[in-house]
Specification:
9 strands, about 170 residues, homodimer, eight-stranded antiparallel β-barrel, 3 helices, globular, about 45% strand, Hypothetical Protein Pfu-838710-001, mainly beta
């Protein structure tokens, strides 16, 4: 069991791509749509995990993660998970002494690019790269659980490209 | 991943107690109340498991089970599970060449005693002990997920002791 603290930002432009150090393809789905916690199956490469997170709004959440057989992950994604599944490529982008994760979504969430930074404390200072746009840490629409129920391609034009983000 | 086939019966009287071979105390809770599948945390003795079952009505269901650290199980039961938790003592009762599980519920489900038999095939023949009462395999009220949302002590007198079971 651990705590997870992360801050999340929209991404402006492609400036981050030249700094990518690594990437991985992720496919994940949720076994529930509860307020209390999320139960997520994730497959990346040849490995699979079951992840449980408390759904506390904000930056600090309880998190439990267990590796499981890939065959179990595949059948749970196919048979038991809410659809659509979340498909994305995660890019690792070093900035100063930290590594940001930039998620480029595909499938029904194509067009959405989000950058996340894990922190040890909610108020920990960090350098904001120039390609980091509006912070959406507390905006539930960007939770992956919500993106599986209401994917980006079903958002209104105004929601996807609000004037304040220009 | 496996399939689970089980048949469930109400229990009449105490005749089964003289045949008990073993028992264990169980405390469990659910992280969801979904139609699609159940996500269950169970602690028994010094061990804990995370269990995921598809919610197909009837006897045959997909089942996945992973052992987890007891400390994780305890904090998930306390913080993330639906309440009330299910508390019961499970008795193992050999009958002919099979072992029945008789669950004697406690807490908010006190008064309920249910016997279960795991089978390899839904139509597999077996010897029915004299203390096995009405079959409730297909009665959703007796699912442990349902007993955590609507425990036995909230059932009406008529539901608990219907005339047909006398």
């Amino acid at each position: 069991m651990g705590f997870e603290i992360e801050r999340k930002f929209l991404v402006r432009g492609d400036g981050w791509r030249k700094a990518v150090s690594d990437s991985m393809r992720i496919c994940q789905g949720y076994l529930n749509d509860e307020q209390r916690c999320s139960v997520r199956i994730r497959i990346s490469g040849e490995r699979a995990w079951l992840n449980i997170k408390s759904a506390t709004i904000g930056a600090r959440r309880h998190e439990y993660e267990y590796e499981i057989p890939v065959a179990d992950g595949e059948s749970m994604l196919a048979e038991l998970s809410c659809k659509p599944l979340i498909e994305k490529v995660r890019y690792f982008v070093p900035v100063a002494d930290r590594v940001w994760e930039v998620d480029v979504f595909e499938g029904e969430n194509a067009g959405l690019v989000v950058a996340e930074l894990e922190l040890d404390h909610p108020e920990e200072p960090f350098e904001l790269p120039e390609w980091a746009g509006e912070e959406v840490t507390h905006d539930a629409r960007y939770y992956n659980t919500c993106l599986s129920m209401r994917p980006f391609n079903r958002w209104s034009q105004e929601e996807r490209y609000p004037a304040s983000r220009e």
